[in-house]
């Protein structure tokens, strides 16, 4: 039975080849992509992430993702537009941390909740620093008005090379 199935498949492939169904396939006659690179067992995963536009951090365990978010939080906070947005961002991260603390998953990384008031104070300091930097910058000097160039020649003017 196995030989019969195999011969049926072989016959279909042969018929398709004879009908030209394999002619002009994309990549025909070209080397396989990555054939010069050393073999990597995770090639399929890397290719999937690249093709789908997913960052590698999305594949990390939740505990490590949370730890990375906590590390990056001060930089993120400094760029937020309002105190309300700072509070919302920290509250959202604290909810995620609490969910992890209730149902931890390996690898077990200790992640503590963030002090909202400390992050608001950090945001205010960054805001004051931006305002101080803006006040210290000298006002741009007004540009001297340049004589407008005449891109079109008047008909009465002779050409310059004459």
Q: What is the gist of this entry?
A:
InterPro entries: DnaJ_homolog_subfam-C_membr-28 (IPR018961). This protein has a domain at about 55-135. It is an all-alpha fold.
Overall description:
It is a single chain. With 162 residues, this protein is an all-alpha fold. The protein has a domain of 80 residues. The chain has 5 helices and no strands. The chain starts with a helix and ends in a 26-residue tail after the last helix. About 4% of the residues have low confidence. It holds the Pfam family DJC28_CD. It comes from Asanoa ishikariensis. InterPro entries: DnaJ_homolog_subfam-C_membr-28.
**What is the mean predicted local confidence, pLDDT?**
84
Shape: elongated
Could you describe the largest sheet, including whether it forms a barrel? none
State the order of secondary-structure elements, H for helix, E for strand: HHHHH
What's the total helix number?
Answer: 5
InterPro entries: DnaJ_homolog_subfam-C_membr-28
Protein name: DnaJ homologue subfamily C member 28 conserved domain-containing protein
